[in-house]
Amino acid sequence: MAESTSRRPATIHEVASLAGVSHTTVSRYLQDKDSLKPKTRVKVEFAVKTLDYRPNLVARSMRTRHTNRLAIVLAYGMHFPGRLLAAASRTAHEAGYQVEIVSVEGGPAARSARIDELARSGQVEGILAFSPITLKGKKTNRVPIVESGAYDDKLHSLAELADATPVREIIEYLAGLGHRTFLHVSGDIENFASARNRKRVYLETVERLGLRSAGVVDGDWSAQRGFDAITALPDGTDVTAVVAGNDVVAMGVVRGALARGWSVPGDLSVFGWDDEEIGRFATPSLSTVAVDREAQGRAAIQRLLAEIRGEPAPDAAGTEDQPPHIPRVDRTPTEPLTGLPPSARPSTRTATAPSCITPRGRARSRRTAKPAHSYGPVVCFGGDSCGV
Amino acid sequence: MAESTSRRPATIHEVASLAGVSHTTVSRYLQDKDSLKPKTRVKVEFAVKTLDYRPNLVARSMRTRHTNRLAIVLAYGMHFPGRLLAAASRTAHEAGYQVEIVSVEGGPAARSARIDELARSGQVEGILAFSPITLKGKKTNRVPIVESGAYDDKLHSLAELADATPVREIIEYLAGLGHRTFLHVSGDIENFASARNRKRVYLETVERLGLRSAGVVDGDWSAQRGFDAITALPDGTDVTAVVAGNDVVAMGVVRGALARGWSVPGDLSVFGWDDEEIGRFATPSLSTVAVDREAQGRAAIQRLLAEIRGEPAPDAAGTEDQPPHIPRVDRTPTEPLTGLPPSARPSTRTATAPSCITPRGRARSRRTAKPAHSYGPVVCFGGDSCGV
DNA sequence: CTGAAAGCGCTTACAG
DNA sequence: CTGAAAGCGCTTACAG
What confidence tens digit (pLDDT) does each residue in B354-384 have? Predict the structure, then answer.
């Protein structure tokens, strides 16, 4: 029986004493079992098993001055994709780090204050912020701080959440269909770099192509905001296409259009973002942008790890080996669904040849064995909400 | 300028030396500023400010044998409500604890192993599992482990995620409308206590009322599973009502029905769960169950804190002061939406008198100033997907 | 009110 | 290959 009645976990000294060696030897055993003479190793092994010994990680951290912990800072209450966080956690674990997720109330200032505190408490070796912060990792006495989705000093996109380039593709595509007046219902600009970036690209692209924007409604990722944005449009509005902050917003936009007696996509084309499964099964199904959350989470942690190790930042554009984005190409266009019964069945759609285009404008297909070198979110024109 | 060029944070000894006192005094200052003579306090204060000193929390933990950290264990990749985690974090912070969120791949066994490891590493003082685990907090050498959503030894519901009672209400309601044959597309039974509980209540209720169940499709929270479950039904099936694991699944069910040429709710009534905003704006909007995620997160942490402190568990049924659930009553029925254009506008629905009933079967209304004493998830029959 | 001493449980040079 | 010693940065009795 390896049971112990003491509430207190065994210490290294107790193991040493049971094994009849010094605690130094036990410590050495923990670091590298092969550095011990076989006979000694067996004794220590036995003692460790018997006492069910686990080293006290706090004490170890104290001595090594390494906590092996990272923090991920999020805005309070944000409905963050579990996959992203899970992938981030896993990547960190594989590198020997634990991840602590800290949710902070308030805006960028509050987050920054918390990060500052965290950075100097000696508890974590690096911090990853998925929401905008005001402080940069420029101060002294600090551990590395990486803001995912932000732009770096040279204003180059750092990929990950920042990649808003699909917005360009979407608008170009819709313009090609004849759309001239657009509306953007953004996500939460204050707390999400991704929302900021998309808004910026939206405005730039509309401008560049000589199109008209009926405005940008600064949203909060809510469907209600999308709904209200549409119902607030004046009768006789020129708007025929909406770029929504995400699928939830898009669903509100669609419902708003239907409530006005408009058809989607007949009278209004609507684009979402995130390729949420629920949007794919909505009626009409949403045209959207597929983003590889797992790759994002992985890439963000890898960038932080590189900073910690003092290595150069991993290529934001991704390498073939470790792409920051893995395109999803399992969408295919369906016939527009304007009434019941629907003529398209989502379950059969994935069986058809995919027809997504990437932000780079390259056609992709599952059947091409080797993926192209560029990775990024994949615009899926396969939904019923955008028209063809 | 309070800037320091050293990369290394200041230690308590450096503060002491600058202030001209012993480090003991500095430590005392950190614990209780008033225990110092005013003159001394000023000196220490100055030194702390000057060096921008923050105590090393790892060292403190080592000495006090308190880490002030809790861990929340989740199944890998689960799309967990941000609000729940945020509320849990906040509640913990208010009690002086940091929260670490650990995402574990694999099923209950893998989670349990990770929890075991965590429990004895000395890194956390308590563990909260939102997903089922196999080990119980019965072993020695352990910190308290609370499994949220599980049933306690006496098989009493521990509220929180476990509260599946609305399933009973839903079925009774649908039976009252004349439905006789039901189908349940469950959530992920293996990794979610909530899915287990709902399935159990579903089977019990159908049995008790002498109704028929066409079966339970063990799902994975995916819309695809919901879609497939419906398209797999034989022609001429008796099923007229579906209880879905959540709103995503429900959306798949609805789409599957539409794909078969059925109308919802005309031919099939569908109930979701979670009251996700996107489902409210879907067409048809979903009948669903509103759950207060923030209250759940709060309650779960409070239960863990009580265990840590050796206090009796907080009342699972909730107190007036700190209810585990706060009913949401902002839903109101809309006319069934069977074609376009829709006759109901979601945005106006919240303005009308709510007509939700609680799991206890009591009518609620915003206009009753004082809420009833019982708290729990609120069944919202206000969606378009269930019929009236 | 303040300081000298002990010690939390480890790891890591340094000797042997 | 193994052990004695020092020390990571704090807190907490114990004296004064």
Answer: 223 332 222 333 222 233 323 466 777 777 8
**Strand C proximal to B58 Cβ, under 7 A:** no
**Partner residue opposite B341 with nearest CB, options A52, A56, A258:** A258
The domains of chain B, with CATH numbers, are 12-55 (no CATH), 65-147 (3.40.50.2300), 161-291+327-334+346-380 (3.40.50.2300)
| B102-144 pLDDT tens trace | 878 777 788 888 888 888 777 889 999 887 777 654 454 578 8
Nearest Cβ partner for A283 among B67, B76, B283: B283
User: Are B9 and A263 a contacting pair at CB < 8 A?
Assistant: no
Least confident range from B58-67, B175-184, B353-362: namely: B353-362
The Cα–Cα gap between B181 and B175 comes to 9
> Which residues have CB under 8 Å from A284's CB, separation 6+?
A254, A264, A265, A336, A337, A338, A383, A384, A385
Whole-angstrom CA distances from B333 to B54, B60, B153, B350 are 56, 56, 40, 10
- Residue B22 CA and nucleotide C4 C1' are separated, in Å, by 9
- Per-residue H/E/C for chain B: CCCCCCCCCCCHHHHHHHHCCCHHHHHHHHHCHHHCCHHHHHHHHHHHHHHCCCCCHHHHHHHHCCCCEEEEEEECCCCCCHHHHHHHHHHHHHCCCEEEEEEECCCHHHHHHHHHHHHHCCCCCEEEECCCCCCCCCCCCCCCEEECCCECCCCCECCHHHCCHHHHHHHHHHHHCCCCEEEEECCCCCCCHHHHHHHHHHHHHHHHCCCEEEEEECCCCCHHHHHHHHHCCCCCCCCCEEEECCHHHHHHHHHHHHHCCCCCCCCCEEECCCCCHHHHCCCCCCEEEECCHHHHHHHHHHHHHHHHHCCCCCCCCCCCCCCCCCCCCCCCCCCCCCCCCCCCCHHHHCCCCCCCECCCCCECCCCCCCCCCCCCCEEECCCCCCCC
Q: Does residue A105 sit in helix, strand or coil?
A: coil
**Residue B222, amino acid:** S
The answer to whether the Cβ–Cβ distance between A251 and B282 falls below 8 Å is: yes
User: Checking phi first, is residue A328 left (phi over 0); if not, alpha (psi -120 to 50) or beta?
Assistant: beta
> What does residue B312 show for φ and ψ, rounded to 5 degrees?
-65, 150
